[in-house]
């Protein structure tokens, strides 16, 4: 009898794996056990990730637009944190309830069971679920991630706010130092600024957005400094942290030498790490500290009957990637039962960061100019400033830019945008890139209706360059 156990069944990756196996229960799979100890259940993205963050960002977006619209009179409104959190909690509760219902519905089928308990490995494919030992033929680990706390001297002696704390905050400090300027920092810094927090950001590199071509990172710096009045210390590192009578002091070292940053609070947006503590992976012969410990088949190197998907494997903590990895894990479990070769997971690079209070999101699909050059692809790159397009002017959001990378044969290889509706345009460009469409054959108006000019301009420029 073939038994599959999914640990972390409420999350997006776990649900995708379960859905991919569901129709095989009763034929190729005898039993499917879904395990999650979440309280309330719902998964990371719903409870502490992309859904609640977009809820609070919407308040920042409305305030930003109000204070930048010269056609409106009077002082801009203040963000009512109580109302923001109350609305967010209501919506998130509904989303989570829907996810729990979906899991319960799967568990209502013959051969499928849901257990609201904690699971850990006690053997190769043996788990202790609650107080019972459960034998499995295949295990999928989809336990998500948790905030990463860096090793900085003195950090353990001060209080700090993580992204989860900010999402629940009905009271915020007057000032703060921000550690971490990746996806989380880029999204939450404008929210905090619009809520009235005076911020200083510590950025280790010359610019943010490591995956972007340099012009986009430079634009982000200008945008945050000029539009949100945020101080950003680039090429600067935290040396040590201490508690003060008024809050916190962060000792840093940068281009101008050592300095001390004082603020009321410290915001820790230093990324996330896989949530693997307490799983007992070593008992299953798995070393999560090993490089590339999860293969592209989603199977672990130490145990090919254990797959790790989503944020838990540390590969690419992105929602759509988690879902796709969950599906691949399910497909490969079925492949193992059929004695077939496993599928290797490959995805078109597709990231969206809701930067600039979601008014100026950054998106990348496929190749950037730098990655195309690194891959040795024969290509042309065309660029367009958002300020040239009337649609952005009429919406009073003229900042930003976009680029299109096209192969010498006309194949669209990639798109980058930092502009209004870049997130929506990325959805269209993902289809274009995945299908390998020719730049001269992209259907007219086959994209977001409010971004025609910038894409039209890029397509036209690319076609001209290829002639």
UniProtKB/TrEMBL annotation:
The keyword Cell wall biogenesis/degradation does not apply. SUPFAM superfamilies: FAD/NAD(P)-binding domain, FAD/NAD-linked reductases, dimerisation (C-terminal) domain. Transmembrane segments: none annotated. PROSITE patterns: PYRIDINE_REDOX_1. Pfam families: Pyr_redox_2, Pyr_redox_dim. Residues 3-326 form the FAD/NAD(P)-binding domain. Keywords: Disulfide bond, FAD, Flavoprotein, NADP, Oxidoreductase, Redox-active center. It comes from the Archaea. Residues 360-454 form the Pyridine nucleotide-disulphide oxidoreductase dimerisation domain. Its cofactor is FAD. Belongs to the class-I pyridine nucleotide-disulfide oxidoreductase family. PANTHER family: GLUTATHIONE REDUCTASE (NADPH), MERCURIC REDUCTASE. This is NAD(P)/FAD-dependent oxidoreductase. It comes from Halogeometricum luteum.
